[in-house]
Amino acid sequence: MSRQRQRMQELVELLNRAGRAYYQDAEEMMSNYEYDRLYDELLSLERELGITLSDSPTVHVGYEVLSELPKERHERPMLSLDKTKEVEELKSFLGDQKAVLSWKLDGLTIVLTYRDGELYKAVTRGNGEVGEVITNNARVFKNIPLKIQYSGELILRGEAVIGYRDFEKINSEIEEAEAKYKNPRNLCSGSVRQLNNEITAKRNVRFYAFSLVRAEGVDFHNSRMYQMEWLKEQGFETVECCQVTRETIEEEVIKFSEKITQNDFPSDGLVLVYDNIAYGQSLGQTSKFPRDSFAFKWADEIRETELVQIEWSPSRTGLINPVAIFKPVELEGTTVSRASVHNISIMEELELGTGDRIEVYKANMIIPQIAQNLTRSGVRDIPETCPVCGGRTEIRKVSNAKTLYCTNPECQAKHVKAFSLFVSRDALNIEGLSEATLEKFIVKGYIREFADIFHLERYEEEITSMEGFGEKSYQNLIANIKKARTTTLPRVVYALGISGIGLANAKVICREFDYDVKRMTGATEEELDEIPGVGSVLAKAFTDYFADRGHRERFERLLSELVIPEEKKEEKQILKGVNFVITGSVEHFANRSEAKELIESLGGKVTGSVTSKTSYLINNDVTSASSKNKKANELGIPIISEKQFLEMIEEK
Fold it and tell me: Helix 3-25 and helix 32-49: axis angle, to 10°?
């Protein structure tokens, strides 16, 4: 990638990040002047290179909803590739020819057409002869260039993919188990074929070019490898590839295989195509396959082992997933001892029972799965109670598959997000307890209520032997938990997750009752309703929470684990009824949060945007032309520096 192309990509990412911070988080990463300067630099580069990326802030792709996706017949049928799992067969195919070796990505194949330097059409592979027109969706893929230098008709093929990280993030936000996507390809297919391209835009679909079909008037030196380099110059991301011969193919296949576990994108093998374009085309095709290329599929490494048990793993949706635990075996360079079975129907299909001899492998060299059951003793011992909460279970049929569910609405596994809030930055601030880690600890029974988090040392041996953990990670976690024991009452109240009670509300309520826990938890709706900024809805939520005996008992047990220093009683709330907005960098405080805490401790309020209710805008650059300053000037709201703010509270 040229330095200019690299700079263009840097500017797109930086300006988009600044835009998100400003419009979504009411924060300013840079001044308007700086934003405009970088924007102009990007615009200049786009004009110079003749390339405009789809996510560039210089273009605004309108969202559109279609009633259906139109169908279109491909100019030439898109054939599948002949496949092999043997490197020797690839050597035989190569002979004395050079070839291009690349990833075989596991996504959705798309054909793009450009005319007059602009994206004209995008069509899915479909059945190879007829595909669906998804032009509107392709315009919002993360990395497709909407404009390119070449002005003739360009037709190319590539793979639309969604990475593993985005797949896991999107799936984690889907509450219903049956609505979750099975794999990244499944998610990508659904995302690419949406009728509303606003949904596609949120899915982070990326496009990797793997083949140039037509670009008249360009001398490609009769080389596929040259074509790939030319596509990069036009602004496309291409699939990773290298040139190989009969002598080097085996070494390169090994290099690719060593990379696959580090890749974020799904791949189910490699593709080999002759570099000599004319020679490849002269070979023609069979009724099924082109003769100029071959697909190499990873030969699955299969190991026989013994099924030790079926572990039942509850989730936040109530679904209890069966997981096969087997005697450890080495697969693709790592030791594995467990594989998800997904549901009872698959268990019944495999006739899976404890003690069976099974064969296991890694799908796409990554995900452990059971290939077959050699002894088939039959399904038994499906639990009648949930392993986490002891509640009753029931078998339900979801999408023609039998699944096991916990029926207890209070099951801890269903409240992972509550524990996640409890350890978050503004609550108890315990680093090292991600949502995924919390879910593991809850399922294993290490955490049943908030107070249990402060006794995880009971499970030192089990935690240090968990995947992703070790002695150092465990010691860091315990140190973070110990540090979190000393906190403030407002943080604890916020951490309980009472509906609608944010940290600011918690501070107001605690101050109102002089940080007296007994008075606060015994407060009536009427008393809370009278507190400015609380209101009847929050008052009811607060009193309902503490009216529950279980909640009160768990709260008392939690408090017994904590050290809450006595709060200084404020003699007067000197900023009561005064609303502030803070923007720009700060000098007298560690960060804006620290300034916000001081204002709130003095009875004031801090919001993210300037409105007619704002009393003061704090900005050290009082004369800047930022949007917040403009708004404040329009509304006649005073703009003060930190120094002026500090002088103000000293005078009061």
Answer: 140
Residues of CATH 3.30.470.30 domain(s) within the chain? 76-296
Fold topology of 76-296: D-amino Acid Aminotransferase; Chain A, domain 1 (3.30.470)
> Which fold would CATH assign to domain 303-406?
OB fold (Dihydrolipoamide Acetyltransferase, E2P) (2.40.50)
Q: Rounded to two decimals, what is the model's pTM?
A: 0.52
3-state SS assignment for residue 190: helix
Which of 465, 485, 468, 460 shows the shortest CA–CA distance to 432? 468
Q: Calculate the alpha carbon distances from 310 to 52, 369, 447, 448 in Å.
A: 53, 14, 22, 22
Helix (H) or strand (E) holding 244: strand 241-244
Place of tokens 């700060």: 586
Distances (CA, A) of 505 to 25, 86, 372, 531, 641: 20, 65, 57, 10, 27
Q: What distance in Å separates the CA atoms of residue 457 and residue 438, rounded to the nearest whole number?
A: 15
Residue 652 and residue 648: Cα distance in Å, rounded? 6
The answer to whether residues 127 and 108 touch, using CB atoms and an 8 Å cutoff, is no
Helices (H), 26-134: 32-49, 87-94
Q: Look up 104 and say whether it is catalytic.
A: yes
**Distance of alpha carbon 355 from its chain centroid, rounded?**
38
pLDDT tens readout for residues 84-95? 888 999 999 999
CATH architecture of the domain covering 412-484? Orthogonal Bundle (1.10)
CA distance 84 to 258: 19
pLDDT tens by residue, 272-285: 999 999 999 999 98
Highest mean pLDDT among 126-140, 404-418, 478-492: 478-492
Let me know: does 101 contact 272? Beta carbons within 8 Å. yes
For residue 73, pLDDT beyond 50: yes
- The encoded tokens of residue 469 equal 């953990």
| Catalytic-role residue among 83, 85, 104, 297 | 104
Q: Where in the chain is the domain with CATH 3.40.50.10190?
A: 579-651
Instruction: Classify domain 579-651 by CATH number.
Output: 3.40.50.10190
Fold exhibited by the domain 489-559 = DNA polymerase; domain 1 (1.10.150)
Tokens of 182: 């099975």
